[in-house]
Amino acid sequence: MIKIMIVDDMPVYREYLRNFIDWKAYGFEVCCEAKDGREALEQYEQHLPDIVLTDIVMPYMDGLELAEKLLGDNADVSVILITGNSEFEYARKAVKLGVCDYIVKPFEKEELLIALLKLQDNISRVLELQNEQDEVKRERREQQLRQYIYTRDLKDKEIMDTKVSFQYPYFLVTTVRINLYENKVESEEIVKWKQVLSSMLLNMIQINGTQEIFSDFEGNIVTILNFQDKQSMEEYEGFEFEDIINMTKEHIGFEVSVGISDYCYSENELREAYFQTIQALSNSYMEHHGKILDYKREKQDGKSEFYTWDLIDEINNCLEILSYEQIEKSMIEELDRIGEYENPEYATMIYMSLLSILFSYLVKKGRNIDDIFGYGFHPNTILNEETSYKNKRNFIFKCYKAAIDYQVKHQDTKSRQIAQQAKSYIERNYGDTELSISDISKELLVNQTYLRKMFKEEYKMTISEYITKYRMEMARELIKRENKKLSYISYKVGYNDTSYFSKCFKKYFGYLPSDIINRQ
Length: 520
Fold this sequence. Notes:
Elements: E1 2-7, H1 11-20, E2 28-34, H2 37-47, E3 51-55, H3 63-73, E4 78-83, H4 88-97, E5 101-104, H5 109-118, H6 122-129, H7 132-150, H8 157-162, E6 170-178, H9 187-204, E7 209-215, E8 221-227, H10 230-235, H11 239-252, E9 256-260, H12 270-287, E10 292-294, H13 309-321, H14 324-338, H15 344-364, H16 369-373, H17 379-383, H18 389-410, H19 415-429, H20 437-444, H21 448-459, H22 463-481, H23 486-492, H24 498-509, H25 513-519
Helix pairs in contact: 2-3, 12-15, 13-14, 14-18, 15-18, 19-21, 19-22
């Protein structure tokens, strides 16, 4: 867990912050509290929190002085100021001194969560700490929910035995699309934030009924809203999705669009409702800005036939075995069946959807889209050109072939080799005070998400945990073997600050490095 200290002179506000968020659900824990800056320094020495949330105006020692002392002595701590409007200028000055962020009261809990997750790559640490069994359960449930949006016949006995049950006959479906190739934020970062946004949505949505959130095969966030009664369904406005659009743009730096279906009166209609959201989202391919696209208001014309789950399943299976010829054959057969060329705008949506399946697969495999297709790759522009459907189909086929060729060329980089190479890199460079997971990822030419996953599967610990473990063990050996000052030892194992090194050493071993020296 990532540890947080709350500092505020008002007990009511400390309690409010403590209970404001389900901290554990996001990988955080409140490890201690303090009523002023002076007490906060004492609590910090005892608990060594990773993040300090502090008010500015407090007795004895205010938030600015506290931040200055903490940041001066502890390079790895993060400080976020929680401030009132009247203290806004003080907050601006604090940021110049090294405070990571400030939040102005009143604020939404999602705004605070995003600020916390943006610090020191906390989002990656949170995802690393996720329980593996919970991940397996989540993926199994997502597979069950996908049956509703891709399967033609929900009465199939095998499906009936495994599908999720809904209590009420009133539904809306929403799809949140995060563009993996038009946003300025790297696709790997978007994938990580998508998991956080899914959790946020689950907590933000308040309806008279229940909701299920999962990912489709294109990497979109799909929500099935199940209302207790017709009136609740018809009165639903979707304000939570407006908040998600605004938050991602303002606080994270990428844009999303949201498609909302027509009213749905049976779980057997959920597949059609899902494709209504995709159809509504087809407008976002051309407009390139985040907005809510409601199918009920955006009356779509033309053919609504979409490709089947069988094609998606075939594509994913062929990608795994790197069989391009079968992918092209299956796509041609299915596209000829649905006749996408009869409606050019609808055809663009289908082509982009097929590309999204490919891009989602590549990111899961740890590949960088730019490495395969080059910088400045803009499929939207190409697929919206005035050219024949055959040329556009060929463009899709070329993308799949380029991706598979790249995978074939690099398939000797097995997961175990990647983990072992990362371990070797850490052991060679542990003394670098700037060593980061980003450095390892660039050295091995894999993205950070994939690297973290492979390392944890191989060594049953996160990369950050192994870096700390190796540094501490090497430090202990150096202290026993060499008659050197602690400042020299700490620098040799990657710490600029001797005081901070001693705290980390005690946290890891349970005793100070000076205890070893005294025993000798």
